[in-house]
Design goal:
The complex is a heterodimer of chains A (118) and B (263).
Chain A lengths: L2 E3 L11 E7 L2 E3 L2 E5 L4 E7 L5 E5 L4 E5 L4 E6 L5 E7 L7 E7 L17
Parallel strand pairs in A: 1-4, 2-5, 4-10
Antiparallel strand pairs in A: 2-3, 5-8, 6-7, 6-9, 9-10
Chain B lengths: L1 H26 L7 H30 L1 H24 L6 H31 L2 H35 L2 H25 L21 H10 L7 H31 L4
Helix pairs in contact in B: 1-4, 1-5, 1-6, 1-7, 2-3, 2-4, 3-4, 3-6, 5-6, 6-7, 6-8
Organism (chain A): Psychrosphaera aquimarina
Pfam families (chain A): Cupredoxin_1
Protein name (chain A): Cupredoxin domain-containing protein
């Protein structure tokens, strides 16, 4: 599982940006760690030949990402917890989680294992 | 793919069916021929296809927020059109032509705002012949479900009109319009054009957005299991402001009728 740590970006006043790639109907990374109470900009690049709709009931966000294009979604400040998202057009494969952690607690970062929850 | 197509069709097409049924129920006695319905559908589908062809460059406008901004604008216009129709339903002195034009435009706007995303899905996957059968069957099943729900709502509207009054249907239409308008806050927050506010409540445990009842309530009255405060305020204002207008109109009518000399 690949973990993306964004806590150091807190010191930067600009909205922190997370890049996500959609390839073969899978999100990379599938688990995104962001700090609590911080607005985050999600940039999703669709490397597939078909459109995908980024959808999340937990986040109240949905946006179509066209083939070989990028789309930007702003995520409002969130409290600690897991927020799932999925590809509406391929819900069985394109899945992921945004894990919101306490910004004040130090977090370990590690990159290991599979890049996708599947 | 089949189940997914049905779900997507329900999500995007059900609000269109609902608004047409509500408008039909409210105005079928004022406008006998239902040709406005077919014109609205044709106009809506044509404009949705035009938008679909241009969607790539539209979505890249305004730093990648073009699609959300355009959708938000169209939803706002649709809201004002639908509220105008409720005002007209209370006012008998409006020409049939004006009423027909408003009905066609309102219907067409509903098709554009709700149907474009489904058209994107359809055109994106139709080219793959493996998907064509699933897509076709999904559309047929989805249409069948939408028609069934629409017929039930149509008969419910008639029952409510006869049992109570037309005001209930007008209220449902206002709730529907408010639900659509409040989604503008989600679109604009997603595009960072509106400030993010905290979640007001989370009723996902009771009625989940992802379940069938959640989809139906979302289409009918704009239900959201975890709305933000801005979403709730917009929803309430979208209901209260028209009612204040109606109360003011009614009191003006009463004053006018009291001032008329007795014969």
């Amino acid at each position: 599982m690949t973990l993306v740590l964004l806590l150091p970006m807190l010191v930067n006043s600009k909205t922190p940006e997370v890049n996500v790639t959609l390839h073969n109907h899978l999100f990379y990374p599938a688990v995104i760690i962001i700090p609590s109470d911080q607005k985050v900009k999600l940039v999703i690049e669709n490397k597939d030949d078909t459109p995908e709709e980024f959808d999340s009931f937990d986040l109240n966000r949905e946006k179509v990402i066209f083939p070989h294009k990028k789309a930007t979604i702003f995520i409002s400040p969130l409290s600690v917890g897991d927020y799932s998202f999925f590809g509406e057009y391929n819900p069985n494969s394109a899945k992921g989680i945004i894990r919101v952690v306490d910004a004040n607690k130090p977090q370990k970062s590690s990159i290991s294992g599979d890049e996708n929850v599947n | 793919m089949l189940i997914n197509t049905v779900i997507l069709f329900l999500r995007d097409a059900l609000p269109i069916f609902i608004v047409f049924v509500l408008l039909l129920g409210l105005f079928e006695e004022k406008i006998k021929p239902r040709s406005w319905l077919y014109f609205a559908l044709m106009l809506g589908i044509t404009l949705a296809l035009i938008l679909l062809v241009n969607i790539n460059w539209v979505s890249e406008l305004l730093d990648g927020t073009g699609h959300e901004t355009l959708n938000a604008l169209l939803i706002c216009i649709s809201y004002f059109m639908l509220i105008s129709l409720v005002v007209i339903a209370n006012n008998s002195g409006v020409s049939i032509h004006k009423l027909t034009a408003l009905l066609i435009i309102s219907g067409a706007l509903s098709v554009i705002t709700n149907g474009t995303d489904f058209l994107i899905f359809l055109t994106g996957f139709w080219s793959n012949t493996d998907n064509a059968t699933s897509l076709s069957l999904g559309i047929i099943l989805g249409s069948g479900i939408c028609f069934s729900i629409s017929v039930l709502i149509y008969f419910l509207i008639h029952y409510l009109k006869e049992r109570f009054s037309e005001k209930i249907i007008q209220t449902i239409l206002i709730l529907y319009s408010a639900g659509q308008l409040s989604k503008v806050t989600i679109l604009l927050a997603q595009a960072d054009l509106l400030p993010a506010t905290a979640i007001a409540w989370n009723s996902d445990v009771y009625i989940s957005d992802s379940k069938e009842l959640g989809h139906l309530l979302s289409s009918l009255i704009g239900y959201e299991s975890s709305p933000t405060y801005l979403h709730v305020i917009t929803y309430l204002l979208a209901i209260i402001v028209p009612y204040i207008y109606f109360l003011k109109q009614n009191s003006n009518r009463k004053i006018t009728s009291c001032e008329e000399p007795n014969t």
